[in-house]
Amino acid sequence: MSNNSLLQLTTVASISLLTGCCIGALLTLPKSQSQPSKQISTSPSTTDYLSDDESDDDDDDDEDEEFIEIDSKPLNDIPGECRLALVVRTDLGMQKGKIAAQCCHAAVACYRLISNSTSDAYNPELLNRWLFKGQAKITLKCNSMDEMDLLFAKAVSLNVNAYVVHDAGRTQIEAGSATVLGLGPAPKSILDQITGDLKLY
Q: Against a cut of 0.85, is the pTM above it?
């Protein structure tokens, strides 16, 4: 195995581990702590969650999120493995740690969308299929914002939860940059229709 392949494998494993830890931490919180303590609306289509104990100097906070609440219940009838896809923009030149943090933001956001009983995206059946069958995640790469926009639109058209993380711009990249697109959880066969042409990160 070449050094480059080993490095890529280690990176994907690290991102998957961090994402799993974030979701696991959410699942083990008491119900009163798992809900955000304040919801700050920045515009009709974007929402930030800020808890009382978060500070303004947290380098990994995402500034802005982009999502559309869709009804993913039609996906419940599609058999097979469910997974969560994380699509990372490679044109931004983010370092590995930054990518891991942004993937965690996307994974947690997708989980929040599908698990929030007041959301149109709420789908406990699909969520449980994903949660209790290993919480499969795949990290992929895209080359530009235009490509990410197309993936987002295709996901919404197929009733797949889609969430774009925008960075706060405190460390490596410009504020407001779309960094990672979270897709799902959704059946693998549907995600393949969206991301089938993308390469593994």
A: no
